[in-house]
Write a structure and sequence with these properties.
Chain lengths: 502, 412
């Protein structure tokens, strides 16, 4: 027996090197089983604006472009026959500072960052490293930040010579195939087999973020007469949208249309409450005395039938100890300036204060320190989207979305209901793995895991874009019976840059 | 000197996970050949672990046993939704034992046992998707157990013993699923606690009504490892992190175990044994890490459940100097559904053993080999907190282990 003992070490060595456990159905990451279904992903073109370009934290930067939802989508499409996906990358933005320079001038600012020392959100104190140079396209990612619906068919939008006139867009100048090419011509030149179309956001967003300073252009189909913050005529919107979708479908492409989220539900409008002014009893009493004349004047106007009882109540200024609403200018109020009564009132929960107002509220006028913005001096129109303006922008958005949903149905295209997704986000979007994402604004390191939006309060952060990509993948799979794989947003960094000092 | 010795033993006691919970049932090469079903058996000093009372039935004045096992285990993970795969690169484990038993008179017998009943060491691949739960863990425990046995008559004996335990824990995980420093390295936290002590007791009884049958029962109490002076250190933190060091306290329970066994000799030269172990895993409710200053306390619910392990062994005395053994056991996982975390990915398992003892004069050499076949399990851990969320970590797990075990015995 003794002489066989030598086998023991050999036996042991053999066993140690062999025989790992195996799964009954092993997963092979190098060989995913994915099908394109009824769709053809050979040439995918993404049509859109900043949300398609990967704009985030208040600007466009390289890693934002690399994480745009079309790039994420194209990555998954490659597993199902998808081809190359080109993007007008800002290749000199190696530090992801963001922004653009032209002839040494900053024409697009760098990204927003959190200054941990000052506990403030501000632009990164670095100069953009990307110079605006023309890199003629067309590119698969045709997301052009700031584009409105009529810009997609506007020749000259990509012409450098038009930049000083304000008629061109630096982002499209970079990527246009020729100075006179339109965005949509560059789309069609690629003969897309598949497209995503998410346009129209800026047609309502700019009006909203400007605090409703623009005009509702309903009934005016001539965009050359529009100001930048105007609401695009829904009839014009429907006409142009239909033209583009029709051209795409006639050329044989399949695709996905996306609705426009309710702009009033993004953190740009929901972060500052309507009543951010803390007052003690003494100050409240003093302020009430100061507004006694205004309130008495309103009573007089009401007694003479100049204003309704509703308006009287809405305009009467009253402060109490505790949290108080803001004093604002509201052009929808009856003009009583002839009586020496300005068009001011206090905010209600139906008014939305824009995020940049944080830097204004409570600040004393440098000339007359008695005038405190939002308390003794009314906030200007641009800091507040008033109840009437909210109603206007919601009405226009609803008309656009009715058009988009109708066209998706008529042309048998997929639909991503981004508006519904945004509504879910407001109450907390729960994903398959039980993780939750909210429409809240950044408020500290601990909020990062649940954050959907970036620091600009309008655009998603990296996790948010991953969630959007998943929504689009769901819509594609449901419509075209494909099996594109989704991403897990939990493993993506929020890409909120926090710096110890700025 | 004493302290150094203990440290050395604790270092040796590292065991890659391979069985129910973090119990490491490798307390004797002789008994391991019979699937570790030793509660109703005696044959050498190993019985000081399995049933100290039975040591009084050993003939001779003194018995010594020393041994160790080499544990090679691998755990694999996969997630079919996201096509994630990972496996562990566990260090080779070396649990050991040393037993000395001697007779004072016909009634009183002393025993001194040193063994490593618990432990777990796992190292997952760098950058794997469960890193927010565990990158690596190493739990070590060494028990020292003096016992006194009273042999009532030729048929029965009872025993009581005291246990002094030493342990250490070293645990590393990523802070969350996404956080990195400025260069993109994942931010991780290491928790280190050494020199943890605890104490417990052991009670046992043995009865041998006839030469062909014996029965035994053994109860080993739980021991709570209270780590009071643990050190926490965060690595690869973003620049805005103001704190990267802290102290912590935590309690890790070593559960109690009740074992009952029966052994029979149906024919000459053949012994059959069966054991049941009941392990009180329900003591492991949660792993609570209380940080002393800066870091927020962390609680990971465990909610483990008591388990049963069934062991069956056979021994055939092939010659005067050679015994051959074989065994089979079924081990339950203590982890309920939705509590299955990759830091102790213990699934139900089956063990197959074979072994022999070669005797020469007063010396004998034991060899046993154990193959553990872990069943595949699809499960998740649902209680990891990340901000407002408790994102589920799910997937398939499977493991196996190959364990040769060597023992050396002296009888005087």
């Amino acid at each position: 027996m003794k002489k066989y003992w030598f086998i023991v070490p050999f036996l042991t060595a053999w066993i140690f090197s062999a025989c790992e456990p195996e799964f009954s159905n092993p997963v092979d990451p190098d060989n995913p089983e994915v099908t394109s279904g009824d769709a053809d992903f050979t040439t995918y073109v993404a049509i859109g604006n900043s949300l398609t370009a990967g704009y985030s934290n208040g600007t466009l930067y390289l890693s934002g472009q690399q994480n745009s939802f079309p790039v994420l989508l194209a990555e998954r499409m490659k597993e199902a026959g998808g081809g190359e996906f080109t993007v007008p990358y800002m290749e000199n933005d190696k530090e992801n500072i963001g922004g653009l320079k032209l002839n040494g001038q900053i024409i697009v600012p760098p990204r927003l960052v959190v200054d941990a020392g000052e506990k403030a959100v501000e632009r990164l104190h670095k100069e953009p490293t990307e110079e605006l140079t023309v890199k003629p396209g067309p590119y698969n990612n045709m997301g052009v930040p700031a584009a409105k619906i009529y810009h997609y068919v506007y020749s000259g939008y990509g012409n450098m010579a038009n930049l000083p006139l304000g008629k061109a867009n630096p982002f499209f100048v970079r990527m246009a195939s020729s100075p006179e090419a339109t965005i949509f011509e560059d789309v069609m030149a690629q003969h897309p087999t598949f497209f995503t179309m998410w346009v129209g956001n800026n047609d309502v967003l700019w009006y909203a973020t400007s605090g409703g300073t623009g005009t509702d252009q309903t009934g005016n189909p001539d965009p050359s007469t529009y100001g930048p913050n105007d609401l695009t005529d829904p009839t014009l919107f429907a006409y142009l949208y239909n033209q583009m979708v029709d051209a795409l479908v006639q050329s044989g492409a399949k695709g996905i249309l996306a609705t426009i989220p309710d702009v009033a539900s993004i953190p740009y409008f929901t972060t500052i409450p309507y009543n951010p002014v803390p007052l003690d009893e003494e100050t409240a009493t003093m302020l009430n005395q100061a507004f006694a004349n205004y309130n008495n004047g309103l009573q007089l106007a009401y007694a003479n039938g100049l204003i309704t009882e509703d308006e009287l109540n809405k305009r009467t200024v009253h402060y109490t100890a505790g949290q108080n609403p803001l004093l604002i200018t509201d052009e929808y109020l009856t003009d009583l300036t002839s009586l020496g009564l300005p068009s001011v009132r206090q905010t209600t929960p139906d008014d939305l204060i824009v995020l940049p107002a944080a830097g204004v509220i409570g600040k004393a006028d440098p000339v007359n320190p008695q005038l405190i913005a939002g308390v003794t001096a009314p906030l200007a129109d641009r800091w507040v989207l008033t109840d009437n303006e909210v109603a206007t922008v919601r009405n226009i958005t609803a008309q656009y979305n009715a058009t988009i949903k109708g066209l998706a149905q008529n042309y048998e295209l997929g639909l991503v209901d981004m508006a519904a997704a945004m509504d879910q986000l407001v109450s907390g979007l729960r994903l398959e793995d039980n993780s939750i994402y909210t429409a809240d604004y950044f408020s500290g390191f601990n909020t990062l895991p649940n954050l959907f939006f970036s620091l600009d309060g309008v655009h998603p952060n990296r996790k948010g874009y991953v969630i959007l990509a998943n929504k689009v993948i769901d819509a594609i799979n449901n419509t075209y019976h494909s099996t594109l794989r989704k991403y897990n947003p939990g493993y993506f960094d929020a890409d909120i840059m926090i710096v110890p000092s700025n | 000197m004493k302290k150094n010795l203990i440290t050395a033993f604790v270092l040796l006691a590292s065991v890659p996970l391979f069985a129910g919970g973090y119990r490491v049932a490798l307390q004797g090469a002789r008994m391991l050949g019979m699937a570790h079903a030793g509660t109703a058996l005696y044959g050498n000093a190993e019985t000081l672990f399995f049933n100290p009372a039975a040591s009084s039935f050993l003939d001779g004045e003194m018995h010594m046993s020393f041994g160790m096992s080499l544990v090679k285990s691998t755990v694999k993970y996969q997630n079919a939704t996201y096509l994630w795969t990972a496996k562990t690169q566990n260090p080779l484990g070396t649990p050991f034992y040393a037993y000395v038993s001697f007779k004072q008179d016909d009634h009183f017998y002393w025993g001194f046992a040193l063994y490593t009943p618990f432990g777990s060491s796992l190292k997952w691949e760098d950058g794997w998707k469960g890193a927010h739960l565990v990158n690596s863990i190493s739990l070590k425990a060494v028990y020292f157990q003096p016992s006194l046995t009273y042999k009532i008559n030729d048929y029965m004996a009872v025993s009581a013993g005291f246990i002094a335990a030493w342990g250490s824990v070293n645990y590393n995980k990523d802070l969350n699923r996404f956080l990195t420093d400025e260069s993109g390295n994942k931010t991780d936290i290491s928790l280190n606690a050494t020199g943890i002590t605890g104490s417990g007791y052991v009670l046992s009884a043995f009865i041998r009504p006839a030469s062909w049958i014996s029965m035994g029962i053994n109860y080993r109490s739980k021991i709570l490892f209270n780590a009071r002076y643990g050190k926490a250190e965060i690595h690869d933190a973003p620049a805005y992190f103001t704190t990267t060091r802290d102290a912590f306290s935590a309690t890790l329970p070593m559960p109690a175990e009740l074992s009952g066994g029966i052994a029979v000799k149906p024919v000459k030269n053949l012994t059959l044994a069966a054991d049941v172990n009941y392990t009180y895993w329900s003591v492991y409710k949660s792993l609570d890490i209380d940080f002393k200053t800066a870091l927020p306390d962390n609680s990971m619910p465990k909610n483990w459940q008591n388990t049963l392990t069934y062991r069956f062994g056979a021994e055939y005395q092939a010659a005067d100097n050679l015994a051959l053994r074989a065994g089979y056991f079924i081990d339950q996982s203590p982890i309920p559904s939705t509590y299955f975390s990759p830091e102790t990915p213990s699934t139900d398992s089956k063990g197959y053993t074979a072994g022999f003892t070669y005797t020469y004069k007063n010396y004998s050499f034991d060899f046993a080999f154990l193959y553990v076949d872990g069943s595949e399990r699809n499960d998740s851990y649902d209680y990891y907190k990340e901000g407002l969320s408790a994102p589920r970590f799910d997937g398939d797990y499977v493991f196996n282990a190959f364990i040769p075990s060597f023992g050396f015995n002296i009888k005087l």
